[in-house]
From TrEMBL:
Keywords: Acyltransferase, Transferase
Annotated source species: Streptomyces guryensis
InterPro entries, sorted: Acyl_CoA_acyltransferase, Bact_Acetyltransf, GNAT_dom
Record bears the keyword Acyltransferase: yes
Protein known as: GNAT family N-acetyltransferase
Record SUPFAM superfamilies: Acyl-CoA N-acyltransferases (Nat)
Entry keyword annotation includes NADP: no
EC annotation from Swiss-Prot or TrEMBL: 2.3.1.-
GO MF annotation terms: acyltransferase activity, transferring groups other than amino-acyl groups
Domain annotation N-acetyltransferase: ranges: 6-157
Enzyme type, top EC level: transferase
Length: 157
């Protein structure tokens, strides 16, 4: 199997943002059965989106987003010093290549650049180990989100 190098960047132009939405549709709507009307929300307009693409041909491999300020406040108990990492998705072809780790670190860098002290996220329970390896700690009870079991997690920056 041939592996590809990839790059992760902030999705600043409309084409990159559309690529982020396409990855989310493939992973969350297509693979996991999340209703499309739940996958996309008003926060998409104010989030910092990050995109991983194959270096040689630009094929989208993964995405994630950071909410901060008022957009994140409702998700992190009103704490304006905490960002919210969400919508982390990696395509089947890119899993196991380190793309998810690179996306999380890029989101953390974006959070630091905005002066945030920590990043919070809602992890699907099957992904708890992934986030724990990156320094996140689970807190609170398990709960359903879009019909999928989740736990809240946080990492100080």
């Amino acid at each position: 199997m041939r592996t590809h190098a990839y790059v992760v960047r902030v999705a600043e132009d409309p084409a990159d943002q559309e690529a982020c939405f396409a990855v989310r549709k493939e992973v969350f709507v297509g693979e996991q059965g999340v209703p499309e009307d739940l996958e996309y929300d008003a926060y998409d307009a104010v989030a910092v989106h990050v995109l991983a693409v194959r270096e040689d041909d630009g094929v989208p491999l993964g995405t994630g987003r950071l909410l901060y300020g008022e957009a994140a406040a409702a998700k992190v108990d009103g704490d304006l010093t905490v960002g919210s990492l969400g919508r982390l998705a990696v395509t089947k072809q890119a899993r196991g290549l380190g793309v998810g780790v690179a996306l999380v670190r890029a989101i953390e860098d974006a959070a630091r650049a905005r002066g945030l002290a920590a990043v919070d996220l809602h992890a699907q329970t099957h992904a708890l180990g992934f986030y724990e390896r990156l320094g996140y700690e689970a807190y609170g009870p398990e709960y359903p989100e879009a019909g999928i079991p989740h736990r809240a997690m946080r990492r100080a920056l």
